[in-house]
Write a structure and sequence with these properties.
4 helices, single chain, Glutaredoxin, 117 residues, alpha+beta
């Protein structure tokens, strides 16, 4: 199966996406961010592997500065995991593939969800 690019959303589309029935992993980026560019292929692979259980999207903060209202984003790349419109995890910096999977698995586990309920 071919890996698809991660959709880029504006602030309005992001707000709708955050209330999706599936959890949403958001990559916050900026123009000319080398680390953001390096994070994208890893997230594209994760999105393909988890396409039935997780939405993965990206938001460019230079084009959508108000998007930081959904999470306290101070640097890029920054990953935020949302479920039912609530922020579960915020992770700044380039993440390795194994770390991404561990974070997603942990924060979507039933035990972790009971902590944020």
């Amino acid at each position: 199966m071919m890996i698809k690019p991660i959709p880029s959303l504006d602030s309005a589309a992001l707000q709708q996406q955050l209330h999706s029935p599936l959890p949403t992993l958001v990559l916050y980026t900026r123009d000319h961010c080398i680390w953001c560019d390096r994070q994208l292929p890893l997230l594209e692979r994760l999105a393909m592997q988890r396409r039935d259980s997780l939405h993965v999207v990206q938001v460019n903060l230079q084009q959508n500065p108000e998007a930081t209202l959904s999470a306290d984003v101070r640097t890029t790349p920054c990953l935020a995991l949302f479920r039912d419109g609530r922020l579960l995890m915020l992770k700044a910096g380039l993440q390795r593939p194994q770390a991404l999977e561990v974070f997603v698995d942990y924060y979507l586990s039933e035990g972790a969800l009971s902590l944020v309920s």
